[in-house]
Specification:
By secondary structure, the chain is α/β, with parallel strands linked by helices. The protein is built from twelve helices and 13 strands.
Length: 311
């Protein structure tokens, strides 16, 4: 009912004492001021200005609008400035979530890039597996999620309806077989999954464990999983002591090394797809878009660096 332009006019009339002076201060014509006052009176259903000769004075209702105009217009100006700052990447907030191996590799470089190029943008980060980060994105508790999906499965794994999301591919991450340095396969060029049915296995996160079961099932057996841990430092320690073998994504091997562990490609080849996930609306928010672009750049850089544990 009451717009910002009408409030500006009422404040100008209160300050200047006439339509002519108010028009001059606002850069309007005097007839335009008169028309705006009449429209505001129609909307409010009451008289706002009393004309006295060549001057005017505000009625009680007009004085109320003029009194409130200052704080309201100041708040609007502040809001416009904040929105302009966000649109211009002088400020902004992004809530980012990523799974552990991405948080140790892709995320730090991306955060550093955004900080260097847009120091006014604030990024908060928390670590979560894909199921939790996608649920947070859907609940409005996250703006951007870095997730992964193994070949042959869907990102939501039937747990999430992804129609409301948009995904940006970041990296195809090869899954390798990790064995002790004195294992008979340590010097091989590749490992055939079908020939590993007698091995003792070490499983990782729920999605990784599910992928191991799928690979083994395709090869015709059920793997003997003796150890389960999501801590890949522990996984490498178990392998180094000869307690088992594991399938480990290459991205993890870029940060977790052990001199007594060897990683080699598998037959058939196995990969997981790493993606950034957000919503169509959030993708258009400048700070979110800048963070997404930084993640793409970080992934491109990561592709050029081989893992130390692979042969």
């Amino acid at each position: 009912m009451i717009d910002a332009a009408g409030l500006r006019v009422m404040r100008a009339i209160a300050d200047e004492g006439s339509f002519t002076a108010a028009a001059l201060s606002l850069g309007y014509s005097q007839p335009a001021i008169s028309q705006m006052v009449r429209r505001l009176e129609t909307r409010t259903g009451t008289t706002l200005v009393e004309r006295v000769g060549r001057s005017v004075r505000l009625t009680e209702a007009g004085a109320v609008l003029a009194r409130h105009a200052g704080p309201v217009l100041s708040a609007l100006d502040a809001a416009e400035e904040e929105v302009a700052a966000i649109a211009g990447l002088r400020s902004g907030r992004v809530r980012l979530m990523a799974f552990p191996s991405a948080s140790a590799t892709l995320v730090p470089k991306a955060l550093a890039k955004v900080k260097a190029e847009h120091p006014g943008v604030t990024i908060t980060f928390s670590e979560a597996e894909p199921r939790e980060s996608l649920a947070a994105l859907r609940a409005g508790e996250c703006d951007l999620a870095v997730a992964f999906v193994y070949e042959g499965t869907d990102l939501g794994r039937g747990e999430e309806d992804l129609d409301a999301f948009v995904t940006t591919p970041l990296l195809d991450d090869e899954v390798l077989l990790a064995v002790p340095h004195d294992h008979e396969l340590a010097s091989a060029k590749k490992a055939d999954m079908a020939a590993l049915q007698d091995e003792t296995w070490i499983a990782g996160c729920p999605r990784c464990r599910g992928h191991l079961l799928q690979l083994a099932s395709t090869a015709g057996y059920v793997p003997d999983i003796a150890y389960e841990t999501e801590d890949y430092v522990a996984v490498m320690g178990l392998i180094a002591e000869g307690l088992g073998v594991a399938v480990i994504p290459d991205l993890i091997l870029k940060t977790v090394h052990h001199e007594d562990v060897v990683a080699l490609p598998m037959t058939p080849a196995s990969r997981r797809h790493i993606v950034a996930v957000t919503t169509p609306d959030l993708q258009r928010v400048p700070a979110v878009k800048a963070t997404l672009d930084a993640l793409v750049d970080s992934a491109r850089s990561s592709r050029a660096k081989p893992s130390r544990a692979s042969r």
